[in-house]
Write the structure tokens for this entry.
Amino acid sequence: MQDDILINWSPQETRVAVVQNGAVQELHVERTLERGLVGNVYLGKVVRVLPGMQSAFIDIGLERAAFLHVADVWHRQPEGEAPGAVRATQSMVPIEKQVFEGQALTVQVIKDPIGTKGARLSTQISIAGRLLVFLPQDDHVGVSQKIAPDQRNELRSRLQGLTQPEGGGFILRTNGEDATDAELSDDISYLRKAWARIRDAGARLPPMSLLHQDLNLLQRVLRDLAGESTQSIRVDSREQFDILMAFGREFTPSATDKLQHYKGERPIFDLYAIDEELARALGRRVDLKSGGYLVVDQTEALTTFDVNTGGFVGARNFDDTIFKTNLEAAQAIARQLRLRNLGGIIIADFIDMVREDHREAVLAEFRKQLARDRVKTSAGGFSQLGLVEMTRKRTRESLAHMLCEPCAACQGKGSVKTARSVAYDILREILREARQFNPREFRVVASPKVIELFLDEESQHLAGLSEFIGKSVSLQSEAAMGQEQYDIILL
């Protein structure tokens, strides 16, 4: 499928949308003051070693200490073993024998801080280029698993011939499959220079210093998002267009022909109603074209998708209605994962299907849609309860976490107590206070809706309580208060 990339730039924020056949497939947002840290290399300082967790906390100059697990401590690979493979040597060497408090350590962020969790680190440094990933501590030469197996050996041999003189490990990225030797050599030269700058900075700078920063979102568009299927890359800033052209000529020459400066009067995101799509991507309900809908719930531990038929009754019988809804939901769920940048454990609760061939067809469609994802995904089959469990690699915060914060009224619960429930809480609190203190009068300060209830439907209960405790109770409405907020003042 052909896609178009639209870039909306402002000094405070960069927004990127990937559009296929008029439908938004991916949304990326980067704020100048909140840039992600994945790929950044720091000179960290070990502040605490936890043998029981086989982990260490590393201060890299952020608000929270970052986290290094023993599995992410680099070891030289045995001959012929790929980086990232399970290494027996790691389990034999406890972390307390590899790092110590106060030690200066060159580390790389592999996961951004998410919620209350600090960034996750690795001591194995990898630097991504346009065509290759450089592993300066290893000698392994590998090829992306997405490239056809029959081509990997030939590509690996070519790469070994180009990298052998100076050593170092390299992995050929998917978009380097058709690269010439000259293009690969240019990328190798750039990556070696980047590593030399990191080593030089590490020798000069004090601990908790940033040694290398990954590319910004605009540059990653050319490096990671643009490909053969990309028809155009439109950016609405002349200044950024010129910067991208200069970057593209040096690192991604094939993408520069697709770069366009958008000069239209309408905002670039209005071309495909992307702002409306962005608003929907933050909502809980996703409507399907057939009349069915999804309900998306994102929690700390996992994300769930609940599929409902809604008003869809168009198929010949009930089984076909369910099947068609589930097929459409499989496509929509895969798209929502990309749009919302959801990661971690994901559970899809499809509508129960009686026929085995329907279940297999829905699962096949779901996996086919997931295969389009740039992020690694893994999906199982239907469980005994009819759920599909899957995982999607999480490296950055989701769209909702980036753009939203918990509601001040409900504190993220998604609901608040009814006015009547709050009124009864107030009555119980007045009774409790009356048993401990002896004021002249109680004054209730609460939201207008709660006060209105006391003046109308609950006036009899309030009068009864006042008579029972022998004290008058006055009411004061406060518009600034949330429905669950109230004060009881003793006068």
